[in-house]
Amino acid sequence: xxxxxxxxxxxxxxxxxxxxxxxxxxxxxxxxxxxxxxxxxxxxxxxxxxxxxxxxxxxxxxxxxxxxxxxxxxxxxxxxxxxxxxxxxxxxxxxxxxxxxxxxxxxxxxxxxxx
Length: 115
Prior knowledge:
The protein is mostly helical. The protein contains four helices and no strands. The chain has a domain at 2-65.
């Protein structure tokens, strides 16, 4: 969807956009912009960086044209109660069914009482 908006709005990337993005990446990595650019070129990641820049520009345009409306928060209904359920197990674990068959020539062992 962002690609479609970028095409419709003719969003483009210039050298200043690359420089700005590379400076941001360098600051995040505590590295030099020159080294970051060299790494991106070596990895062949400049196309991915271009796409990232375009997406950021499109999102900035969407945000600039968006209209926001404050909506009053409606609290929770006081009549609602939490239901106590043991998701990870609980007392019910003691009711594990016993094995029905023992391997040939062996007697069934009774489970240990863990209650």
